[in-house]
Amino acid sequence: MRQGLDEDLIVRVLGTAPKYTIAELEKKFPPRDLPVGAMVTRFAPSPTGFMHIGNLYGALIDYKLAQQSGGVFMLRIEDTDTKREVVGAVDVVKNAMRRFGFEYNNDEKYGPYYQSQRKDIYRSVAAELLRNGRAYPCFLTADDMEKIRSEQSAAGFATGIYGEFARDRDIAPDEIIKHLDNGEVPSIRLYSTGNPNARIFCKDAVRGSIGFPENNEDLVLIKSNDGLPTYHFAHLCDDHFMRTTHVVRGEEWLPSLPLHYQLFRMMEWTPPVYIHTATLDKIDEDTGKQRKMSKRKDPECNVAFFLENGWPTDAVIEYLGNILASGYEEAKLKGVVKNFWEYEMKPKKIPMSGGLFDMKKLEWWAKEYIGAMTVPDLVRAVTDWAKEYGDDKQKMQVADLEYLTAVLAIERDNPKRVRKDFITWKQTLELVEFFWDDLFVPNREYKYNTDVLNAFLETFDIADDKDTWWNKIVEIANRFGIKNGDVAMDLRVALSGRTNTPDLYSIMQVMGKARVTQRIKATL
Ligand code: GLU
Questions:
Q1: Is the pTM of this model over 0.90?
Q2: Going by CA atoms, what residue is nearest to atom 9 of ligand 1?
Q3: How far apart are CA 153 and CA 147, in angstroms?
Q4: What is the pLDDT of residues 414-471, one digit of tens each?
Q5: Which of 73, 86, 231, 237 has the most ligand 1 atoms within 8 A of CB, as the residue to mutate?
């Protein structure tokens, strides 16, 4: 510890008087009144305008832990990096929360929830640290730091502001005043007393206790350029005063854990339980090897991809849920639970490495999910998607609700034999395009048997029940000495342009007499 600053100097250093004492903050944000075991979690994205699938995965853990323990899930916007600010970025996050069904509970009492609006809190905590000699104003410029860094590199030392390299570590009040009089604005740095030869043990709920060298870097707590906190300091203040019990974050934060323990200890606050999640991998299409997902190469890295392409968001959640709680799929198949929200996940079992996000597996979850939907739900989902993201073609497809409903109802009346070829709302509309005359593409490659088509037209009656209709097909097949299936194939291709479709009788019923007749005639 160093000599603390007096109140007047603290005000000058911070540029403003601290608004609260620590005791006042403790009172303003009291421990939450929740049952034992209730977890308080937060999703804390930096609003960059891009939401990574890994962020969604982390948010799912946060939301699930709060949901299953009767706790609280918050959304905190970490907008302290003014240089990276992007217009509309918060909407991207909020929209994703809504679409994926994560309801956050930002109780006003513990807000505000934008870090940029919490300066009073950070400054008040920083004032306390300046007062008791655990932090100091640092007047190093960017150039100074660059010089230190290159000297350190040249001499083979670890880079950073620590020990003898921390020029202002023991700066005296009169020197501080000189700098301030000079118009310089300091950053506030931690006065680290950690010894890198000693070890600090930190806990991660999944990995257990991990030993790290103690931190000796005088890290920046409050930046000089905008007076905003660094991630580390904001994490300390916010997760303490928001009364977060569990911090779920990417494993890239694991190396900062000793620093965070140091900060909490310094304040004599209890650190939260930490869960560091492994980044999601994928199987590389070219090499067949497992690798990290890449923002540049993999469109599915971006949460927006799933919304724009009409993936059922619930199926994405089911699949992510199964990655983080591997017993879920079995429990669901056995009927023990209906969906992921009913399944109790164990924080300890969250994968520590190599969580694999495989689009093929997601397809399976999506097919199962859509297969279990009722027709009205399916129609609604497809329609909502098309109205928001669809092109003119798709908007046209959903314009006639009655026809769309009839089309999508095909092969969904027998729960034991529901068609399972729909994967996304977009692909669903593509698969059924042939029902619309403007979108139907006749198959000109196929060798039609025109005698068969003519014979069918002669006896075709839309009012026939399925047996009568089938008997007519059998009769035609017998007459020409060919297989029943060949007759059906000629009709199928003439009507749909394809050799593979759901039930042909249903297709004709939905298309109606005029359309069926017209398509066969056009083929002839
Ligand atoms: N804003 C940080 C990030 O996006 C949050 C990490 C955390 O959850 O503490 O990585």
A1: yes
A2: 249
A3: 10
A4: 878 889 999 999 999 999 999 999 999 999 999 999 999 999 999 999 999 999 999 9
A5: 231
